[in-house]
């Protein structure tokens, strides 16, 4: 049951206080690659696509999906959350944790429950939240796997397995000519999308980030911010993902990303860091230590400013400037300073002004003792 | 003797490490008034003004002045510094300590000694440096007394005494009709100028500082920065002084300043602080604590930024937000972060880049332990 402020109660199937799998700071190339993501778009044969389906069709597709997902034994524990039973606070938490899209959280609200007045849901593998399946978003099923560091090959293997298990008891909409059919043409084919979240503070500082964006654009790759399409690159975090899937195999798409582009960008960032440390070490040290100074002293903090300073501290850690700090608590703070998580931690709905005060307090408390001068 | 870097040696008559009288943070209205200053312009009868005097005239005037100043028993200890024996580093220190003007420190240099190639000097009462007398600046004698807090009446009494003691053995250039004759017409008459250095961070934050400047201008008062004419108002410090003396008695000039203007400005600043603390306390607390955070963590600091943060800390102290801190060490840092003093503390000449590093180090060290979070 939800409390009066609409915050998740103690029986919530998801532990919103814990960091998610993609914040661990572990895995391959974790100095630059924050997380990897694979996503499959699938639709159930015999049902119209979500955007052209009647309410009854969608309710029916939801029921069929639920039954199948629950029967498929995808993970040891799987939380099933129907969005019409959630309120704004919980949906915000799910978006901030990258478990559902902003689009999935939006819609006409039910006046009685406060939930989204649509037959929509998300299934989340707990406790690591690596697997999530949105039901009735743009497609009937959007299967997502996220992991820490660069792990796209592993994610592909695992998401194929999840896909097979679901397909074992259901017919997907499929065309022998085009492949899996999806609501948006860019997903037709394998229906797969790969993405990585990169931490590129040095390329941002040198200004070379614009070159990376242009190069990626020329290769049909999208470069987006921390919260996807249209969001700014807070904390110097950039998502790079493939744009189209039609006519390409999963392996070919993966090769496009991991064969050339990713190693190049990771290499650029590393050499930019190296150059900055060699030739402008006092500038980097100044930025990193100022970030600590501000975060341990400020009484007012916006999300944006908190994330930018956390980014600098993360750079300091991976560059070896702060041997006493670890990456994971800093990454975790990137999530906890978000409005939804902050209100969850405070146990009440906060105005924007209150959030800035409470955010500063949270960050001070979490960094106290951890961060020296 | 000076060391190779041109820094004052251990036998220097002035202890450049110590704070000067005007940095003590004591005295009347010390929450707003940093220091008070009285200055007399005097010329010796029978000698041409400095700007129209030959080199021999000036050398002669210097010798006469020295003899008289030394004989007058003005203070227990009086240091006599001839500027042609000083180098750039020492002159910078004297300017930063407000013991000589920038103009007095400048001039054609002697290639052998590095000193100013002019017969110029300054006499400084030690150890408090409250009294200083520039010889052969714009006038033969510029007598200055500085004190902490608002103490103009006391300074007037003391500077009159100094004036009388000097005049007892020398003839001043004087006209029964105009009064004391000076090189610049604005000083003719009593030749006196009063000034106060005000700390006005709250009026700066509210933007009302512009109103104060306009009002002061309308009353023939000058508003200048920390280092006088043409200098910016670093650390939110503003000097207010009278502009003209002709036809007015010393008491009348003093009344103009202390009767209406000063109490009004002090009152404005206090009420602005009060209002900010009542209605925007989190904004003030944020600024004050951020200042501590940055100064205890930054690895690079410009003079300007250091002074601005020190200003905020000083505001925090006088507003009662930082009970563990005292004003005097913070005021002292306002002086020590200046380029000349910084180089003196480091014992060598520093490039601008080195100064930013050493300044940050100095401030961190001095604030360590003193300032909590």
Characterize this entry briefly.
Chain A has 373 residues and is of the alpha+beta class.
CATH class of the largest domain in chain A: Alpha Beta
**How would you name the CATH homologous superfamily of the largest domain in chain A?**
Glutamine synthetase/guanido kinase, catalytic domain
Q: Segments of chain A where pLDDT lies below 50 for 5+ residues?
A: none
Strand order of the largest sheet of chain A: 2-3-4-5-1-8-10-9
CATH topology of the largest domain in chain A: Creatine Kinase, Chain A, domain 2
CATH architecture of the largest domain in chain A: 2-Layer Sandwich
- Biggest interface: chains and residue counts? A-B, 20 and 20 residues
Write the layout of secondary structure elements.
The structure is a homodimer of 373-residue chains.
Chain A: E1 33-42, H1 55-71, E2 77-82, H2 88-96, H3 102-105, E3 121-126, E4 131-135, E5 141-148, H4 152-167, E6 174-175, E7 179-180, E8 192-199, H5 201-206, H6 209-218, E9 221-224, E10 237-242, H7 250-279, H8 281-295, H9 303-318, H10 327-336, H11 339-346, H12 352-367
Antiparallel strand pairs in A: 1-5, 1-8, 2-3, 3-4, 4-5, 6-7, 8-10, 9-10
Helix pairs in contact in A: 2-11, 7-8, 8-9, 9-10, 11-12
């Amino acid at each position: 049951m939800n409390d009066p402020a609409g915050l998740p109660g103690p029986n919530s199937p998801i532990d919103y206080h814990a960091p998610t799998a993609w914040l661990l700071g572990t895995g391959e190339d974790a100095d630059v690659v924050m997380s990897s993501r694979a996503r499959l778009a699938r639709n159930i044969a015999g049902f119209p696509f979500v955007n052209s389906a009647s309410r009854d069709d969608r309710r029916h597709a939801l029921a069929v999906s639920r039954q199948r997902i629950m029967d498929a034994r995808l993970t040891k524990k799987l939380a099933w959350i129907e969005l019409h039973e959630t309120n704004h606070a919980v949906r915000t938490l799910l978006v901030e944790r990258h478990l559902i899209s902003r689009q999935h959280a939006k819609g006409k609200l039910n006046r009685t429950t406060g939930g989204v007045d649509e037959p929509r849901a998300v299934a989340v593998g707990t406790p690591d939240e690596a697997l999530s399946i949105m039901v009735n978003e743009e497609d009937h099923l959007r299967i997502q796997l996220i992991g820490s560091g660069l792990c796209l090959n592993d994610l592909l293997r695992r998401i194929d397995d999840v896909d097979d298990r679901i397909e074992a008891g259901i017919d997907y909409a499929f065309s022998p000519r085009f492949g899996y059919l999806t609501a948006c043409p860019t997903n037709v084919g394998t229906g797969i999308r790969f993405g990585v979240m990169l931490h590129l503070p040095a390329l941002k500082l040198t200004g070379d980030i614009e070159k990376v964006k242009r190069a990626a654009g020329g290769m049909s790759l999208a470069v987006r911010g921390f919260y996807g399409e249209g969001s700014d690159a807070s904390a110097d975090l950039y998502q790079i993902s493939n744009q189209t899937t039609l006519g390409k195999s999963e392996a070919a798409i993966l090769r496009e990303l991991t064969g050339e582009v990713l190693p190049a960008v990771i290499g650029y960032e590393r050499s930019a860091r190296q150059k900055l440390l060699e030739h402008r070490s006092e500038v980097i040290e100044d930025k990193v230590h100022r970030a600590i100074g501000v975060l341990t002293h400020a009484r007012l903090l916006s999300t944006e400013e908190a994330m930018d300073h956390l980014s600098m501290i993360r750079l300091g850690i991976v560059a070896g400037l702060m041997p006493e700090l670890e990456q994971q608590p800093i990454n975790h703070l990137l999530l906890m300073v978000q409005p939804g998580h902050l209100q969850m931690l405070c146990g009440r709905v906060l105005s924007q002004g209150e959030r800035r005060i409470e955010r500063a307090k949270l960050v001070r408390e979490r960094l106290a003792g951890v961060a020296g001068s």
